[in-house]
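hiii so um. not sure if this is the right channel but i have a protein structure encoded as tokens and i wanna go backwards to a sequence. like what aa goes where. can anyone help
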């Protein structure tokens, strides 16, 4: 078996053990499942269902209404009874079972916050009609289908879910290892309330979380719940070192942000002087004993084993990815819309103003008052102006990537070749997302628009094929042209991103006259204008080596800086989409 196959099987075994521990304690743990739709995800969910002992499993769609999620007014029963009648939501219906959150990476922060409150309290308060408290002790599996780094399930949920299962790189032909069955899970659930952990295990989990740079206080608590579940599966009422190590690998490892620093004493260090006995030393104060060093070392190594190789390299280099929103090729920001878009709730309003009437919400608002309103009009449903509810519509803004290309100088043709290849690659990705791309070039004494915002791949290739090069570097004019186009796009409701390809060495001022000092000053002024407008920007340094002028320009723009001494089109396209 090859090394890659061993790694894949190890990832699947960890995912299987996470399913088993979650089945033992679904309310106290939880899972974030990062996987696209396919046989691997189906196989993991089937494994989880086989392990759950007759627990209800409910799937919550992405655009679930609050009344369906938390409960609300039962419209039919209220109209029939003439008094408010509440109904349970899907969270209360799943009490004692598991809920699957579909497309959790697109879940709104408001819905995620409501689910988080229910997870913390174990109950749902239905406020519509007579306030009622329904038990909702649920286990949550958040299915995350986002493959980009900036597409993740909301942090409020990820912080409360113990296991982060990533099946994106796992093949469909991995072999199953020895796992407990449903009968063992039932026995473990009975034993779980009696499982205890000693102080050494608690200290070891907390110190391991600190060594891995995990700031959340929930992480060691979730690791403790997982360790107790592992002990219960093994038929023990006391957590052992192996249980804690498994919990560290499955819970703390995926949360690591730094690698632990090993503090070993040098071999030639002078021996410490003998001190007086603890009970005879003057001024002695009783202190707690330190946790077992061997146990802490084992827990840290177990957690490090779960860190992916790519993340391990980033942590060792001390590089953490910088997320900047919006990004090129990604979905734009949500904005209010009129009648087109995705409904995100209702509000009181008059539908005659062009808003979309929400009939069900209007009836729900009017139903509790019908007994008072029907004293003189028996049998008729009376709707008043205050009852009208209109839909709140959100529409995702269209993303436009604006390439501002330095087409001057003797090396212009090499840079333009890179820009042409990158724009063509990114345009194909934007075509799938229905986003747009524009190309501007600056050379000589001014900047010009080569390609207005478009989705046409043919037009982009034709414009790029005729892109000229040579002459002076009017950097300020290029930045201003990109700013004007981006500002216009944003005023029309779009989400622009500026990608500036230059070596940062300006020699033509804003008025078209030469002079390097004035040209640099004008370029910095134009860059500050981009920063003041809070436009997303990326500066690609096309110098043979990273140049300080480009770095200063990126800092003034508040742009992400990317030095590419020998860039290729594919690498540039990946960087722009990152």
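sure thing!! here u go:
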């Amino acid at each position: 078996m090859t090394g890659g196959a061993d790694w894949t099987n190890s990832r699947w075994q960890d995912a299987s053990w996470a399913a088993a521990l979650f089945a033992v304690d679904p309310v106290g743990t939880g899972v974030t499942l990062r996987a696209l739709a396919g046989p691997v995800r189906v196989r993991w969910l089937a494994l989880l269902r086989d392990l759950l002992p007759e627990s209800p499993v409910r799937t919550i769609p992405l655009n679930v209404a609050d009344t369906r999620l938390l409960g609300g007014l039962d419209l039919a029963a209220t109209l029939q009874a003439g008094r408010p009648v509440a109904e349970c939501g899907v969270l209360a219906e799943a009490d004692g079972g598991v809920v699957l959150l579909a497309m959790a990476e697109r879940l709104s922060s408001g819905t995620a916050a409501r689910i988080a409150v229910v997870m913390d309290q174990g109950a749902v308060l239905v406020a519509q009609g007579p306030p009622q408290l329904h038990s909702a002790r649920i286990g949550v599996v958040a299915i995350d289908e986002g493959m980009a780094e900036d597409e993740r399930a909301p942090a409020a949920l990820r912080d409360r879910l113990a296991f982060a299962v990533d099946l994106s790189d796992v093949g469909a032909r991995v072999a199953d290892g020895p796992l407990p069955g449903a009968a063992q899970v039932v026995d473990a659930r009975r034993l779980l309330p009696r499982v205890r952990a000693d102080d050494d295990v608690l200290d070891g989990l907390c110190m391991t979380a600190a060594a891995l740079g995990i700031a959340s206080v929930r992480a060691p608590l979730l690791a403790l719940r997982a360790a107790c579940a592992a002990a219960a599966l093994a038929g023990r009422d006391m957590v052992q070192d192996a249980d804690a190590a498994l919990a560290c690998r499955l819970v703390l490892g995926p949360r690591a942000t730094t690698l632990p620093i090993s503090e070993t004493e040098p071999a030639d260090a002078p021996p410490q002087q003998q001190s007086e006995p603890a009970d005879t030393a003057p001024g002695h104060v009783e202190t707690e004993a330190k946790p077992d060093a061997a146990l802490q070392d084992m827990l840290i190594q177990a957690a490090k084993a779960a860190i992916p190789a790519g993340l391990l390299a980033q942590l060792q280099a001390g590089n953490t990815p910088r997320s900047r929103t919006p990004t090129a090729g990604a979905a734009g920001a949500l904005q209010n819309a009129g009648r087109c878009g995705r409904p995100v709730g209702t509000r009181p309003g008059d539908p005659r103003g062009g808003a979309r009437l929400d009939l069900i919400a209007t009836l729900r608002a009017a139903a509790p008052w019908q007994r008072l309103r029907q004293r003189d009009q028996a049998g008729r449903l009376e709707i008043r102006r205050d009852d009208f509810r209109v839909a709140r519509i959100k529409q995702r803004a269209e993303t436009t990537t604006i390439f501002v290309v330095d087409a001057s100088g003797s090396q212009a043709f090499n840079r333009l070749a890179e820009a042409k290849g990158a724009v063509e690659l990114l345009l194909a990705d934007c075509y799938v997302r229905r986003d747009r791309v524009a190309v501007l070039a600056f050379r000589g004494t001014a900047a010009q628009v080569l390609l207005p915002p478009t989705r046409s791949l043919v037009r982009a290739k034709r414009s790029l094929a005729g892109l000229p090069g040579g002459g002076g570097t009017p950097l300020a004019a290029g930045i201003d042209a990109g700013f004007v186009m981006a500002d216009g796009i944003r005023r029309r409701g779009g989400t622009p991103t500026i990608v500036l390809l230059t070596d940062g060495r300006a020699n033509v001022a804003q008025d078209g006259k030469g002079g390097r000092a004035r040209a640099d000053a004008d370029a910095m002024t134009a860059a500050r204008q981009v920063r003041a407008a809070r436009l997303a920007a990326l500066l690609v340094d096309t110098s043979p080596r990273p140049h300080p002028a480009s770095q200063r320009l990126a800092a003034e723009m508040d742009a992400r800086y990317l030095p590419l001494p020998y860039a290729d089109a594919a690498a540039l396209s990946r960087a722009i989409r990152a």
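oh and Residues 3-24 form the longest helix (22 residues).
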